[in-house]
Write a structure and sequence with these properties.
The protein has 216 residues and is α/β, with parallel strands linked by helices. 32% of the residues lie in helices and 25% in strands. It folds into two domains: 106 residues, Rossmann fold, CATH 3.40.50.170; 104 residues, Formyl transferase, N-terminal domain (Rossmann fold, 3-Layer(aba) Sandwich), CATH 3.40.50.170. Helix 2 links the parallel strand 2 and strand 3. The protein is globular. It starts with 6 loop residues before the first strand and ends with a strand.
């Protein structure tokens, strides 16, 4: 039986790329429906670029400081993605805000992972925000990207309990473990056609694994 074509994925990073590594590892499985074919960073010194190159994946920096404005940087990014025939973009700690035009061009084809249970605690310092709010559950969310920051249809979430005595660092360590499991699982769902956008919501075709909270 002929293998169906794998979804061509680019991962965008700004730092060490721990979630990128999790996606690369998952994609080594021949049965995985996506392949990571490109890693791009807005920072030439991002440690994740070397990690991607070690895995044999083309990895390039497009330094945002070399461009006069967001639109010209986004245009350069868009050109790289289109030249590589990318089907789906995964943001993994990519610390840039896109222009609405760029987001529109990749609507329904760009995922982000955020370290909170959205819509709670958007932006940065999410673990400190969670502790300050006194929530008992915290976690991470994978969502489709829309022009509004940390919004967009939620594909999946993973939750952890907040413990007495937690500080932002201890919370971050446990959330990162969840992120590294959730993101590859979600990419497989989207690339395999089992998670699809229906207006502003995501419909999942089959049941979620235990411990992963899907928005059904």
């Amino acid at each position: 039986m002929a293998m169906s074509k794998k979804t061509r994925v680019a991962v965008l990073i700004s730092g060490r790329g721990s979630n990128m590594v999790a996606l690369i590892e998952a994609a080594k499985d021949p049965a995985y429906p996506a392949e990571i074919v490109l890693v791009l960073s807005n920072r030439p010194d991002a440690a994740g670029l070397a990690r991607a190159a070690e895995a044999g994946i083309p990895a390039r920096a497009i330094d945002h400081r070399a461009f006069p404005d967001r639109a010209s940087f986004d245009a350069a990014l868009d050109a790289e993605l289109r030249a590589a025939d990318i089907d789906l973009v995964c943001l993994a700690g990519f610390m840039r805000i896109f222009t609405p035009g760029f987001v529109a061009g990749w609507a329904g084809r760009m995922l982000n992972i955020h370290p909170s249970l959205l819509p709670l605690f958007k932006g940065t310092h999410t673990h400190a925000q969670a502790l300050e709010a006194g929530v008992r559950l915290h976690g991470c969310t994978v969502h489709f990207v829309v022009p509004e920051l940390d919004a967009g249809p939620i594909v999946a979430q993973a939750a952890i309990p907040v413990r007495q005595g937690d500080d932002p660092d201890s919370l971050a360590e446990r959330v990162i473990v969840q992120e590294r499991q959730l993101y590859p699982a979600v990419l497989a769902l989207v690339a395999g056609g089992r998670a699809r956008l229906d207006g502003d919501r995501v419909v999942i075709a089959d049941a979620a694994p235990d411990g992963v909270l899907f928005s059904l």
